[in-house]
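Example record used in the benchmark description.
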Amino acid sequence: MIDIDSNSNAIAAMFRQRRLRMDETTRQRIAPLWAWTVAGPALLLAATACGDGILEAPTSPPLSQAAMLTQTADRAALVALYNATGGPDWTNHDNWLSDKPLDEWYGITADESGQVIAIDLGDNHLAGSLPKELGDLADLVSLQLHDNELTGSIPAELGNLGSLGALWLHNNKLTGGLPEELSGARDLIALWIANNELQGVVPGSWRRFELLFFDISGNDDLCMPGTWRFVEWRQEMLTFDGSWCHAGDIDVLARLHEATDGENWTDSEGWLGGLDLEPGSA
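Model output (structure tokens):
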């Protein structure tokens, strides 16, 4: 398991080695996250992007009426987050609900048009449910809300975030199943939801994600389906941590193989061959 909250230098070094095995398309997909994620998890992503250089955030067009409307929607979404998660009791809530530009609110990064592109409120004593208004942050690229006291379900409206690349929700108290609708956030490449109280199975629609980093560990009643399609999907990732729904079946079949001299069966093709219990499926 990768600890993305500590020892970031070691993590960065490991992924600098891995970047050499990535194709150019993968590097380009990761690269834009550099500009908006700068802490430990950002090192992990940025180290795979483009060598040791720091990428510049893409410039935005001059402020337009559309951009002004987006700023209004962004401000409303942030106010909803503040009110829903006990903002007055946060560890740091400097400038929140003030008339200052949004990028002067603690934990908020905005682009040159003033539109919110990153939220970093990890380990900031947020408590309560995530509001659906977060789905109105149209230009959001990075959402870090890990290590808080968040409860309730993951809002389906996060699937509206077409620019979202990385989502940190680990180490909270989130419950319920994983929303099918999140698959609408098709640019997502990094998803950490470990150590919550989530349930069910990873939805089939999530295979639309081209995830590189995926962690569902620490959710006792949540697992990844063991079908060949999910096994292939996992093989495209750099890291996955979590339970497989068919792990118990694999263990039972392995014991059967051992107890009945499986090595000398007339035909034992595919047995003990890995996660896929349906070799040859297509």
